[in-house]
Design a protein that fits this description.
Distance between the termini of chain A: 40 Å
Shape of chain A: globular
Radius of gyration of chain A: 23 Å
Helix content of chain A: 40-55%
Number of strands of chain A: 21
Largest interface: A-B, 128 and 128 residues
Strand content of chain A: 5-15%
Mean pLDDT of chain A: 94
Oligomer: homodimer
Number of helices of chain A: 19
Structural class of chain A: alpha/beta
């Protein structure tokens, strides 16, 4: 078994590829050697924390349609008035810091793929939640379970993605109330990287947990997080029954919950960055507090999803400076709180994998890397504000993830890397191409992109004047053609299929 | 006079644009509110400094074909042996720190355009040195003086570029030995932003100084840097007579010199980043020492241009992690030395303004911004490893420069930006679109890109499914169509034209 995309190139080329990939391919997640970049002083951070506590105490959060959740919070010290829950200043921080782990391991069915979520680590997962898919051959269309499986396979085959993700695309050819079963099954069957569970109904969260129990065993599950699931606040200042119910189901099973306010500044929060930061902190702390009250010590990840809004059209915009500043600032707030943090990705508003897509993605992904994000959803594939996941975009983004693996290692200061003797022995005016130091190091010296075209203009013309997206097209096709499923215990597979069949038969199809 | 691109939109739209641009348009250069990102500890930096001194002392630098330069260095304390010049440990640092300014002003003929070069400021200048130009209509072709003038006009019209640059493209329709006159004239005549001078021959540097004297006056020039010129080391460890001669001509006139080792790691230096850093520091210190010995106090900028090399094809590669790490590290070395620093830009190897171009550019430009570069050459237009400057790429990159202007201001923590009252008064579940705080702030809240398409997929289809480069195409055409030259004293203009005519008549055309 290997996750190196196999190529037919032989000899020197093949050896080169093996060595070039060897730096990163064996890493189940990244471990940063570089400190995170910070945009706010301790004083600024204290101010935002104070504001978050003011919001929690004075206006509070609505926990809608779930009296049990409000009772949990009341017993934890909150002031409940109808659906409104107010948190005395300091309560949330104290509860979160009292029991939430600073870092945790999400276990995979292949132990070599388990990921450590928390500082100084980074985990890259594919795009999440798109109803549409796009490739250069068939254009934009609704996603299907076949597309879903394809993206699971691509994430599995990529040495630069660490996680199988969740709803990579919506399989709209399956009924809404049953498709979670096929999605969870696909993650388990076609990959052995860790995965995410369903959050669209508490029952579907429980189905996810049941399927995880089939794979890992009931007892194992209670002591090990094997599912990480994304719950979004209904900003501003609302947690709804679906998300709260899903969070409860996972927390009760000691499975990890990613608590993410979804903030289009100007719509879900004030337009200003400092306000969106404080509101994000308030909403996330309320959600994480709930999880800790349901099961102290259950793994939680502080999440932040933020975008600016076009004040002309109301559309979300990506890759602009304001959400980048917010990302850096909220990452600092999460570190001070002492919980793992999720944000960023390769986000863009572009409909196609063009220059807009790449500028915007990089303008989010660079802050993602430098802010020291621990879990990166949407690391590959995202287009059109998340409405579409693209096959070529996935390949282009995964290449960027590979570069991040090298960058985050920082500058090698070993004697070999300093190479003083090489410079002294080479002397003025002599190139280094044939120097023994070059020959000994060149195969691993530089990250090598599969997509970038560094040829001459004339060579590029002869090759058909392909742009980056066109060059990415055959790569995903080759990866799918050469894909081999990781082994799975046939008994487990049978039990999963049996569980799915039984569940599907137990209630009628529905598209709500 | 204004440098806001005029648009025909009236009323609300026009007011919006005015206000949206008002944040940055009046700034002749950026002043960073954010601290630079650092990838090396003090210990690591000391190690690289020690290695640079070892290189300078033990193998030294060749100053080829210029005995006068070697004599200058010998009198300054260097050990000269044939063309080889060795610098005792600490000599260069001591001389540079003894007289080179930590920051300086490059004055423009319009005083409002003068730029401050040094911390905490950033100045963006266009691409430099391309023989080819590219636009979507006419494709790739050799540059002409008309192209050159066009790019001067575009840099002048862009509110996000602070500097007119130098050889934006080579005007290959003019003889090599005379085209510098037309280039310098174009910068002066078609822009009033600061500009760069010729370095292809010491005589051409002196012509540049003469033309600057016509504009600014001989006495003024001796006390004010009005020209900034780029001299490149002939790495490894060589300074050649052309560059040294040009540097001397500018330093004697107290004009600013940008001293840049040009390092394709693996060819001009060892393949490893730490080695390329130390060698860059050694070569740059040798050059800056020479300038300070020619005229103590003459403004110098420490430059670094670095790229990885494809070890398969020998082609330079851009946007990869290794040169980004080098950029951060050498920026730290320059700060410790206490001189302004030039590096980065929107660099890429792509032949066209596609996703590769944008990823690679952003992967260089983000480090450029975060490392706190003071002078950014190649901030707009660069394609194909610098062989081509693109019209559409120029527009796309200038948009990124605009974003940098907002980003570098950091997070606004004013009471208005905190907006606690807005959050408290709005309450759970109510969007902020109509909130008074939103209405009072939305026009300046977010950077607004002219190029990004944030419309719905259906709107984008209706608009012709244009990609980012296609949307940039009409923008540069509109900017050129609406361009109005800044005023110039007719007597000065006449004197410049007369000087050029006299110089051109005084020796035959030549293409060397």
């Amino acid at each position: 078994m290997t996750d190196i995309p196999r190529r037919r190139a032989g000899g020197r080329e093949a050896r080169h590829l093996l060595r070039a990939h060897s730096l990163v391919q064996r890493e189940p997640f990244l471990t940063r050697a570089l400190a995170p970049y910070e945009v706010l002083s301790d004083e600024g951070l204290s101010l935002l924390e104070y504001n978050a506590d003011t919001i929690l105490q004075e206006v509070g959060i609505e926990f809608r349609g779930d009296a049990e959740a409000r009772e949990t919070l009341r017993l934890g010290g909150a002031d409940v008035d109808g659906e409104r829950v107010r948190f005395p200043r300091g309560m949330c921080r104290s509860i979160i810091q009292g029991s939430a782990p600073r870092a945790f391991t999400q276990y995979s069915r292949n132990p070599e793929r388990s990921v450590r979520i928390g500082d100084p680590n980074m985990v890259f997962a594919p795009s999440y939640g798109s109803p549409f898919v796009l490739d250069l051959d068939k254009g934009r269309r609704y996603g299907t379970i076949e597309d879903f499986r394809n993206f699971v396979k691509l994430a599995y085959a990529s040495p630069y993605l660490h996680h199988s993700g969740g709803t990579i695309c919506e399989p709209v050819d399956l009924p809404v109330n049953k498709r979670h079963l096929d999605m969870v099954y696909s993650h388990i069957r076609y990959s052995d990287k860790p995965f995410m569970g369903s959050v669209t109904h508490p029952d579907r969260a429980r189905d996810t947990v049941e399927m995880a129990r089939i794979v890992f065993g009931t007892e194992y599950l209670d002591g090990h997080a094997v599912v990480l699931s994304l719950v979004n606040a209904n900003s501003p200042l609302v947690w709804d029954a679906t998300m709260v119910g899903a969070a409860r189901a996972y927390a009760e099973a000691n499975q990890a919950v990613l608590v993410t306010p979804f903030m289009l500044a100007g719509a879900m929060s004030p337009v200003t960055t400092a306000a969106a930061c404080a509101q994000t902190l308030a909403e996330a702390m309320a959600g994480m507090t709930f999880v800790q009250l349901v099961r102290p010590g259950a793994p939680v990840v502080f999440g932040s999803f933020a975008s600016s809004l076009s004040m002309q059209s109301g559309a979300p915009t990506f890759g602009t400076p304001e959400p980048a500043l917010l990302l850096y600032a909220v990452a600092q707030l999460a570190r001070r709180l002492g919980v793992p943090f999720r944000s960023g990705g390769n986000l863009c508003a572009s409909k196609v994998p063009d220059a807009q897509a790449a500028y915007e993605s990089a303008n989010t992904f660079q802050p993602t890397i430098l802010a020291g994000i621990n879990f990166v959803l949407h690391a590959a594939g995202w287009l059109e504000g998340g409405l579409t996941v693209g096959y070529e975009k996935f390949i282009l983004d995964a290449d960027q993830c590979g570069m991040a693996a090298v960058f985050t290692k920082g500058v090698d200061l070993s004697e070999n890397a300093q190479a003083v003797e090489a410079i002294l022995s080479n002397g003025p005016g002599q190139h280094f191409l044939g120097h023994p130091h070059t020959l000994a190091n060149f195969e691993t010296a530089f990250y090598r992109s599969e997509i970038a075209d560094n040829n001459s203009y004339e060579q590029w013309l002869e090759g058909g004047s392909l742009d980056a997206a066109q060059r990415a097209n055959p790569i995903w096709k080759r990866m799918l053609a050469e894909y081999e499923a990781p082994p799975i215990d046939p008994g487990v597979d049978e039990a999963l299929l049996e569980f799915m069949a039984r569940r599907k038969a137990s209630f009628p199809d529905s598209n709500v």
